[in-house]
Design brief:
- Helix 2 packs across helix 4 and helix 4 crosses helix 5.
- The chain is α+β, with helices and mostly antiparallel strands.
- The chain has 2 domains: 112 residues, Zincin-like (2-Layer Sandwich); 35 residues.
- It is elongated and about 65 Å long.
- It is built from 5 helices and 6 strands; from the N terminus they run ααβββαααβββ.
- A 3-stranded mixed beta sheet has the order 1-3-2. The protein has a 3-stranded antiparallel beta sheet with strand order 5-4-6, with no helix packed on it.
- The mean pLDDT is 78.
């Protein structure tokens, strides 16, 4: 397997917060690394994608990575990887094994065998601190006319919904535009 240093693959920015995702040069290095990790899986006669795109997706929130089966792409979270560069390679391998195992395999036995064939531990979840990540604020509060149950929402459009408890109509009680 081609040995690439973590600094070559992914170097954190000098500023505290990054406004742009990493350069395309680092994604090219990650794609070479992805090809190197898929090679042993092909030798074991597992069907693997020939070429995998690796991109940084700044819209990911608490997950380190995601496998996109339709576009044969691994999406990585630049915000979490900025603070935890040691998680880059394990996350890449994790998502590559998802692509190789297929959309129905999940974290099952086939995926676990592929992780072990790549020399990685088949861990499912990370335990990283995500408190620094931006959370969506629920700006709209809807309340049931009948029972008073409140429903915080990201968007205003709840006119066609009813209360889950009693079936009553919902009314806006907090409107960000009106400053209420």
């Amino acid at each position: 397997m081609e040995q690439l240093s973590l600094l070559e693959l992914f170097s954190p920015p000098r500023r505290e917060r990054r406004k742009k995702v990493p350069s395309t040069r680092s994604t090219a290095a990650l794609e070479r690394l992805a090809a190197a990790y898929l090679a042993p899986l092909r030798k074991l006669r597992w069907l693997c994608p020939r070429r995998v795109r690796v991109i940084f997706n700044a819209r990911l929130r608490s997950t380190l990575g995601r496998a996109d089966f339709t576009n044969v792409t691994v999406e990585l979270n630049p915000h979490l990887l900025d603070r935890n560069p040691q998680e880059l390679v394990p996350t890449l391998v994790h998502e590559l094994c998802h692509l190789a195992a297929g959309p129905r395999a999940g974290h099952g036995p086939k995926w676990k065998k592929m992780m072990q064939a790549c020399g990685a531990k088949p861990t499912v979840c990370h335990s990283l601190d995500t408190s620094h990540l931006r959370r969506r604020r629920r700006l709209w509060i809807w309340r049931c006319k009948s029972c008073g149950e409140g429903y915080p929402r990201h968007h205003r459009g709840a006119r066609r919904y009813r209360c889950a408890d009693c079936g009553g109509r919902l009314l806006v009680v907090a409107d960000p535009a009106a400053g209420k």
